[in-house]
Design goal:
By secondary structure, this protein is α/β, with parallel strands linked by helices. The protein is built from 13 helices and 13 strands.
């Protein structure tokens, strides 16, 4: 039976992890170069992706190709039967104990189903015991103490190193469960079952896990890759419209930084995505996962090209933190941050006015915010303080992902016009004060 635990007082694990393995030299360009490792803009992806499988429920498989035998699949389909889902997920569970973790919003919808199908020992020869824990929902609960509830439960059950944690939910659940699995007995396996667009296209893939700190978002965490990612897009049928739109900001990102044809496809098909058209939704998720897998394969620990996936995030994280976690959905903060990055890039002459307008247009077509509301508490000083604590800061130098050149190209750099940065921040803040 699922249980909601109260956080207990216990010694903090010595697990505050450096989330960036960085090169303080500060500049990284994604404009095509001779060195393929430095190439992020692309119209053809090198990541392994298979066509729909010939089963009663067709699905795509995108492979995240890592070293040392740590490759794992992303399964993408819709309306899997319980038996189909059980077969795909259970083959990535190697021990006999499973801890299935979700939140109090998802639990009434999907917890019983996934607990039962994971416990269905008739699909293979394994005898699995599945326990559950339910966490409070929301970005404001993405904390060390809430994450400790998972560890308390695992310790109380006596789970060993062969146990598998399963994350059922959106990005907050995935990040916290991933971090818990990274530190429990110095690392156990985990599986991602994302139920939001944001988690499906971004946070469930690539192994970045963590929790927030009052001084910064995702500042405590670790890199820990899942055994597999299982995406059943039918869970999006219960996703609120606001959260659907929030996730689209991460889809837009891939087109801007490296996949111009995908951006152009979005311009033509955004209405279908918003209307939850099954084919358009599945394509958007698959193409996003292919892009994410390609980048993770090239730079698993975010020493260079992977940082470009954070387009708009430095501004966006400051907005989320400065406004109070939970005020903005992550994708909404990223959307405003992307508009700020585009504005700053245009002010520096790195992109033209036409491209900047296309960026604003596509975000607005997804009903995403591109400016701060009148009641926002954000000030110039707030931006500067919180951005100075960003994970991409190296040796005290702020580094940003900015757009440069034609659509599909960007640059990760600390070498930018600080005047353009301040002018951009002031311009957005003035809209509040007007």
């Amino acid at each position: 039976m699922a249980s909601v635990l109260s956080p207990t007082r216990w010694l903090h694990l010595a697990t505050t992890a450096l989330l960036l393995t960085t090169n303080p030299a500060a500049s990284f360009s994604t404009t095509p170069q001779n060195n393929n490792n430095n190439r992020c803009s692309t119209t053809s992806l090198s990541v392994a992706s298979t066509p729909p499988q010939q089963t009663s429920t067709p699905y795509d498989t995108v492979k995240v190709d890592l070293s040392s035998g740590r490759d794992y699949p992303i399964y993408i389909g819709s309306d899997f039967t319980d038996t189909e889902a059980a077969k795909l997920i259970r083959k990535h569970i190697h021990g006999k104990r499973v801890l299935l973790i979700t939140n109090d919003r998802i639990a009434p919808l999907y917890l019983e189903r996934y607990q039962q199908l994971l416990s269905d020992n008739s699909v293979d020869d394994k005898e699995l015991v599945v326990d559950t824990v339910v966490l409070p929902d929301g970005e404001e609960n993405k904390t060390y103490d809430v994450m400790a509830m998972v560890l308390d439960k695992a310790l109380g059950l006596g789970l060993d190193r062969k146990s598998t944690f399963v994350a059922l939910g959106g990005g907050v659940i995935g990040d916290m469960v991933g971090f818990a699995s990274a530190v429990y007995q110095r690392g156990v396996n985990f599986v991602q079952i994302p139920t939001t667009v944001m988690a499906m296209v971004d946070s469930s893939v690539g192994g970045k896990t963590g929790v927030n700190h009052p001084l910064g978002k995702n500042m405590i965490g670790a890199f820990h890759q899942p055994q597999c990612v299982f995406i059943d897009t039918s869970t999006l049928n219960t996703l609120p419209d606001r959260e659907l739109k929030s996730g689209i900001s991460e889809v837009v990102k891939y087109g801007l930084i490296r996949d111009a044809p995908f951006f152009e496809w979005q311009e033509e098909n955004m209405t279908k995505v918003l209307e939850r058209d099954p084919e358009a939704t599945r394509y958007a998720i698959r193409r996003s996962c292919e892009n994410k897998a390609d980048v993770v394969q090239a730079d698993e620990l975010e020493a260079g090209v992977r940082a470009t996936l954070n387009l708009g995030h430095t501004f966006g994280h400051a907005i989320e933190n400065g406004s109070g976690y939970g005020t903005w959905l992550h994708g909404e903060g990223v959307s405003i941050g992307t508009a700020m990055a585009a504005t700053m890039s245009e002010k520096m002459g790195w992109i033209d006015e036409g491209l900047k307008q296309r960026i604003y247009d596509i975000l607005e077509s997804a009903d995403l915010p591109v400016k701060l509301p009148r009641d926002s508490p954000m000030k110039v000083e707030t931006f500067n303080k919180l951005m100075s604590l960003d994970k991409k800061v190296a040796d005290g130098q702020l580094r940003l992902i900015l757009l440069q050149g034609e659509l599909g190209n960007c640059k990760f750099t600390g070498e930018f016009d600080t005047g353009a940065l301040q002018e951009t921040i002031e311009e957005f803040v003035k809209e509040i004060e007007a």
